[in-house]
Structures are given as structure tokens and as C-alpha cells.
Amino acid sequence: MGFPVFGYEFFDQWLNQKSNEILSKVEREKISNEDMLILSLKAQVNHFHHMDVEFREEFKKIDRRFDKLTTLLTWGVGLFVSTQIAVLYKLFM
Fold it and tell me: Taking the model in full, what pTM does it have?
């Protein structure tokens, strides 16, 4: 079975079955326009799946970068505030 499109496993099974049937007869006979459309649809489904995987991985990388940045900023602000408090304490005490 291939990649479920929008959670429609029945459609995905049908598309896989039809595309395999068409691919098996490509070398033996001429395929119809309908067969070409089915093969095009199968190619698009595969393309969308691969793009989805790539985009999810990229978003995970971006999320990790933002996590690092927010951690760095939190520590930086904390250190700045504590330094300012220490300086003010020495000045006025």
C-alpha cells in the first residue's frame, strides 16, 4: 500500500492497484487518456507525500532553532537583570 491521501485508505488502495495494472500493460499496449490521468494522479500523490515529509522535517529544524534562541534570550535577560541588580545593590548599599 502507498501513502494515504488525506486519510482515504480506500482511494489509496484503488489508486495503487490501478496504477500497477496500467504500468504492467505499458510495454505491451497503448494506454488510454484515462490511464494517463491515473498515472499522473499517482505521481502527484507520491510527490505530495515526499513534499509533506520534507516540509515537516524543515519545520522541526526551525522549531529547534527557535527553542535554542528563546533559551539563549531567557538566560541572557536573566544574566543582564541579575548584573544590574548587583550593580545597583553595590551603589546604594
Answer: 0.56
